[in-house]
Amino acid sequence: MKPVLIQAAIAVVLMQCAVAQAADNAAQIKRGEYLARAGDCTACHTATNGPLFGGGFAVSTPFGQIWGSNISSDKQYGIGSWSDDQFVAAVRDGIGKNGEQLYPAMPYDSFTKMKRDDVLAIKAYLMSMPPVHQASPQTDLPFPFNQRWGMRFWKWFNFDKGELQNDTQQSAQWNNGRYLVEALAHCGTCHTPRNLTMGMDNDKALAGGDLGGWMAYNITPDKQAGIGDWSHQQLVTYLKTGFVANKASASGPMAEAIEHSLQYLPESDLQDIATYLRSVKPQPDAQQTRARDSWGQPSTALIALRGADDATRHAQPGAVVFAGNCASCHGAEGAGSGSGFHAYPSLFHHTSTGAADALNVVSVVLNGVHRHMREGEVFMPPFAPELSDQQVADVSNFVTQQFGNPAAAKVDAKQVKGLREDAKLASPPIYGQGDKP
């Protein structure tokens, strides 16, 4: 063969290899985008209204605030200069670029189960995104929690390192659902209770977790405490939309997970998650004597306020607050209004009002609900700027007593104040005599 022909042949081969390599890179980036979405990386690594993956989001823990790091492609402040091994070590092992121990606010106790190729696909996607040239605030916990070397001891008790292996006795759908729940979507980070060292209590996996201002409910198939009375399709619909009539409407951290992550997953993934959740060990709770969504009925309490004298109204402070702030959307009887995507949910047959703890009801009143969904926005205004701590306690107790679980523990103004302060929500102004609100 003539030298010219040989050179031409080599050029064609090299071009084909380059095209194949570009296609492989594009496929890896596309998968990385999906994986980053499924893992909800934006939740901790994007500040509110901040640039994507630029860090700066504050994660509240019992030990202080931990700031989400910049994971953009920036070489100075992000991961632009990280090797593949360094990135994998951070995600799966909780080891930073310079060998420092990472706090488990980064859920590497779940991410350790991820496939290495999946972690590298996420890195490829992040590296394809614009760099964010800004430093994230430095985490500065009080002593002794600022001694990162101490995380080695935490890991001895709470960190089972290793990639999740498929169970050959189960279907591909079940294994995918398990991978999503236990590893990628790290559901146990919120929905599993914590032990004394704040590690996940895996003997009670998915039995519900206390997030401070919110409860992440039991998502095992126990019929009273968990999702045992939910159908498969109801679970899928909730994961996709955050709402199932006469069951639940998502708020707080769960609303954020649906907004940023779950609503974008393919239907097959949501089906697989539901399949796996319905198969795990049921975890009962003695406090939850019947399914949360089975409590409640319409209330006629507001009828008694019509034409009532001041003494009667004073004796029903929660009803008064409800009439002035809640009834216009949720109805005087608490049955909600409207249908479809923009419906206002019923307050009875609802997992929050039927819980044994009114924590989520209080937090919804204080924080409101705001889910950016593909179909539009779901919005309930926050009442923290409008209602005093006592008013929030009054209306929360009224809602749980009238529409939900009458055995639920009552809340008081002191508890509301604590939740308000933890969430850094301003109190309404106190007006003096002659002032106009």
Distance between the termini: 93 Å
Query: What Rg do the Cα atoms give?
Result: 25 Å
Label the structural class: mainly alpha
The helix/strand order is HHEEHHHHHHEEHEEHHHHHHEEHH
Beta strand %? 5-15%
Oligomer: single chain
Kindly give the count of domains.
3
Spatial order of strands in the largest sheet = 1-2
Provide a compact summary of the structure:
This protein has helices spanning 3-38, 42-45, 84-93, 108-111, 116-128, 151-158, 172-184, 188-191, 232-241, 252-260, 267-277, 310-314, 317-325, 327-330, 359-367, 389-403, 413-422; strands spanning 58-61, 64-67, 209-210, 215-216, 243-244, 248-249, 369-373, 376-380. With 437 residues, the protein is mainly alpha-helical. The strands form 4 sheets. The protein has a two-stranded antiparallel ribbon with strand order 1-2.
Description:
This protein has 437 residues and is mostly helical. It folds into three domains: 125 residues, no CATH class; 106 residues, Cytochrome Bc1 Complex, Chain D, domain 2; 131 residues, Cytochrome c-like domain (Cytochrome Bc1 Complex, Chain D, domain 2, Orthogonal Bundle). 40% of the residues lie in helices and 6% in strands. The protein contains 17 helices and eight strands. The strands form four sheets. The chain has a two-stranded antiparallel sheet. Strand 5 and strand 6 form a beta hairpin. Helix 1 packs across helix 5 and helix 16 crosses helix 17. The longest helix has 36 residues. The protein starts with a helix and ends in a 15-residue tail after the last helix. 41% of the residues are buried. The C terminus is likely disordered.
